[in-house]
Amino acid sequence: MRVLLTVEMDTEKANHAITDNTLPHTMKSVFDRVKPEAAFFGATEGMRTAFIVFDLKDPTDIPSIAEPLFQKLGAKLAFIPVMTFDDVQAGLQKYATS
After folding, report:
1. Which of 10, 55, 58, 73 is least enclosed, having the fewest CB within 10 Å?
2. Under a CB-based contact definition with an 8 Å cutoff, are residues 5 and 37 in contact?
3. What pTM, to 2 d.p., does this model score?
4. In sequence order, which residues have a C-beta less than 8 Å from that of residue 74 and are 6 or more positions away?
5. What is the C-alpha separation between 1 and 23, in angstroms, rounded?
6. What is residue 13's three-state secondary structure?
7. How many Cβ atoms are within 10 Å of 84's Cβ, its own excluded?
8. At a CB cut-off of 8 Å and minimum separation 6, what does 69 contact?
């Protein structure tokens, strides 16, 4: 299932991770695990935020994805199922025929 993972990083922990150069390593370890389709960085509600779209093959993968972000960045996470426009159209087609 395609998901959007939002990662809101605790400012103090993220500052420390930037200073000691562990932020790139932490993000790379997550990216190596999820193989993102897309990733963007910005700020939401004043916090450094990553927006990562990837295919979640099995819900049991969530802890291995989430724990490094919780532990090293004090992050707030949201795993949100998302669809492409083609997915929406296919879903609406199923709805129309039911």
Report:
1. 58
2. no
3. 0.91
4. 9, 10, 12, 13, 14
5. 27
6. helix
7. 11
8. 7, 9, 26, 30, 75, 77
